[in-house]
Write a structure and sequence with these properties.
Distance between the termini: 44 Å
Mean pLDDT: 88
Number of helices: 29
Low-confidence stretches: 509-538
Helix content: 40-55%
Number of strands: 17
CATH superfamily of the largest domain: P-loop containing nucleotide triphosphate hydrolases
Shape: elongated
Strand order of the largest sheet: 3-4-2-5-6-1-7
CATH topology of the largest domain: Rossmann fold
Number of domains: 4
CATH class of the largest domain: Alpha Beta
Bound molecules: adenosine-5'-diphosphate, magnesium ion
Oligomer: single chain
Structural class: alpha/beta
Length: about 600
């Protein structure tokens, strides 16, 4: 009889319960149905094929695009006692020989391979000798030209379907629109695949936006206050990535830079150092992150504005894959929008369809006073969870961080109206500020009742208000002449039936000191349940000790520390303080093999004689 998925989950991986969709996907695959799954980063996609691989027996082929990922996944499986290996160009001839030997002998359950390995005949003839029972295509969006990361080698996979008709298939990825999904299914020849669509929400990520003034000091202070926590600082340029890394090192932090201008060796050193917890903070351009599955990245800071919400979401998605609370801070200044637009103009990039719209969506997100989560989810076509989400700066702050600008909104809207809805924001602001420009004179606008009534705001504040009114639909921009018209909801504001707020960050900045959110303050004190700052919590010292032990064991085996145990396991050990192997087995993440290999070492550390 076959083991139950729950049993495999507990005995092999040490986890007590499935995350959403895992069980359904596993059941479907084991029952022989092809599946297509789109689940967010950190959802636990790997287990969706690893557990069926163990249940089905025989061989599972896992296709994965990144060699670095394969190595870590195989190391993680080995630590859990699963016989797995990878075959790719990084193996020496002798290693490859040995790997193939093991596959033929029939004990290996999972073989990881890059798609390009499949075009040569060698891997195929190996597979011919042990027909795979399951073919799992990870990062399956790479199959489709419509995806954001198309890799032509993935097209080779179509050959496998005919070659091994008995195999069941899983295509799995974090991002695939309907069009991409259809493309994947037809390219791979999936048979009436069952579709599993997970949401985009990542409730364990606390997201916030802060003004960019004093950014470098803020980044250093933030990293220092979380000295042991792995983090990534995303920068808009190579130079910036270098200078941030330098500032962090000067502050005594183990930091490294990562960008495409470095040699492949240098980049590998930084990436490996990060995965192995030798480097705590990496300041990087967007080039960093694709090849890492590190589950315990605790914070992501964006030092510069990303070009789109898609990019932003992908980058913050690298935090907290282990489901533990993690922080994402975007440092925002309006100047970034201007600079990015100028750069796009120069490189001809704004001719790429939608580039400016994507940037504007990112801008609107940063300047929004609404629940951040709601803005992101709506952007991806999902409805928001019940607000307040409790884990974004706007929800935490509530009205505190909002400035009531209803009167100014009314002034602006009525000025638009009185000038005949025929002008752009610049002219409307001239009228409000009482500027005697040529245009004002030409249209006799100094006679309007709204002339000069807006001295309380600066031009940039009026501009910010205009953008917010546009974002909220109170204003509509006529696309051809860029003139402003009133939107339908504007009436309610004009009649004082609904108030209008601007986030402090936009209305005029009270300065970073006041802007530390309630939650962050509580966090620093360590008194939000489940969100304690490490070291403050009960057992903090023991936790640090267990971490050091983990690092020693990992270095000795040359594997990443998280492969031995995730943070949550160490936290549970530190607070529950198990006294026997039996008690230890009950702890999160402690499976059979890890118990046998590391159990005693951790017990000794917890219960010194
Ligand atoms: P994804 O590929 O979807 O981003 P991973 O497969 O890398 O996610 O898993 C992320 C982390 O979550 C890993 O550390 C994994 O061990 C852990 N994980 C997966 N499933 C579970 C579960 N059911 N319970 C606890 N932890 C899990
Ligand atoms: Mg994955």
């Amino acid at each position: 009889m076959r083991a139950r998925p729950e049993t495999v989950l507990k005995t092999v991986f040490g986890y007590d319960s499935f995350r959403p969709f895992q069980k359904d996907i596993i059941d479907a695959l084991v029952a022989g149905a092809d599946c297509m799954a789109v689940l967010p980063t950190g959802a636990g996609k790997s287990l969706c094929y690893q557990i069926p691989a163990l249940m089905l027996g025989g061989l599972t082929l896992v296709v994965s695009p990144l060699i670095a990922l394969m190595r870590d996944q195989v190391a993680a499986l080995a630590a859990a006692g699963v016989d797995a290996l990878f075959i790719n160009s990084s193996l020496s001839p002798a290693e490859r020989e040995l790997a193939e030997e093991r596959v033929r002998a029939g004990s290996v359950r999972l073989v990881y391979a890059a798609p390009e390995s499949l075009s040569g005949g060698r891997l195929l003839s190996l597979l011919d000798s042990v027909h795979p029972r399951l073919v799992a295509v990870d990062e399956a969006h790479c199959v489709s030209e419509w995806g954001h990361d198309f890799r032509p080698e993935y097209r080779e996979l179509s050959r496998l379907r005919e070659r091994y008709p008995q195999a069941v298939w899983l295509a799995i990825t974090a991002t695939a629109t309907e069009r991409v999904r259809a493309d994947i299914a037809s390219t791979l020849g999936l048979k009436a695949p069952r579709l599993f669509l997970g949401g985009f929400d990542r409730p364990n990520l606390n997201i916030s936006v802060e003004p960019k003034a004093g950014a470098l000091r803020r980044i250093v202070a933030f990293s220092l206050s979380r000295a042991d926590a792995p983090g990534i600082v995303y920068c808009g340029s190579r130079k910036k990535a270098e200078s941030v890394a330098e500032a962090l090192r000067a502050a005594g932090l183990a930091a490294g830079a990562y960008h495409a201008g470095m040699s492949a060796d240098e980049r590998t050193t930084v990436q490996d150092g990060f995965i192995r917890d030798d480097i705590r903070v990496v300041s990087a351009t967007t080039a960093f992150g694709l090849g890492i599955d590190k589950p315990d990245v605790r914070y992501i800071i964006h030092a510069d504005l990303p070009r789109s919400l898609e990019q932003y979401y992908q980058e913050i998605g690298r935090a907290g894959r282990d489901g533990q609370p993690s922080e994402c801070v975007l440092l925002y200044s309006r100047g970034d929008v201007v600079a990015l637009k100028a750069m796009m103009g120069q490189s001809g990039e704004d001719e790429r369809p939608g580039a400016l719209d994507r940037l504007d969506a990112m801008r609107a997100y940063a300047e929004s006073g609404r629940c951040r989560r709601a803005v992101i989810l709506e952007h991806f076509g999902e409805s928001a969870p019940g607000a307040p989400c409790g884990a974004c700066d706007n929800c935490e702050r509530g009205d505190e961080g909002q400035v009531d600008v209803t009167v100014q909104a009314q002034k602006f809207l009525s000025c638009v109206k009185r000038a005949g809805e025929r002008f752009g924001a610049g002219h409307v602001i001239d009228i409000l500020l009482g500027e005697h420009t040529d245009k004002v004179a030409r249209f006799g606008h100094e006679r309007l009742s709204t002339f000069g009534i807006g001295q309380e705001f600066s031009r940039s504040q009026w501009n910010a208000l205009a953008r917010a009114l546009l974002d909220a639909g109170h204003l509509v921009r006529e696309p051809e002449h860029k003139t402003l018209l009133l939107g339908r909801p504007a009436v309610a504001v004009l009649r004082s039936e609904s108030p209008f707020f601007l986030p402090a960050i936009v209305a005029g900045d009270p300065g970073p000191a006041q802007r530390v959110s309630k939650r962050t303050r509580a966090l620093q004190r360590g008194n939000i349940p489940g969100f304690q700052a490490e070291g403050d919590e009960a057992g903090g010292e023991l936790f640090q000790k267990l971490r050091m032990l983990r690092k020693e064991l990992a270095d000795a085996k040359r594997i990443p520390p998280y492969v031995i145990f995730p943070d949550r396991t160490l936290k549970e050990m530190a607070s529950i303080r198990p006294a026997s192997l039996e008690e230890l087995a009950g702890i999160y993440g402690v499976g059979r093999t890890k118990l046998a290999n590391y159990g005693q070492a951790f017990l000794d550390a917890i219960n010194p004689r």
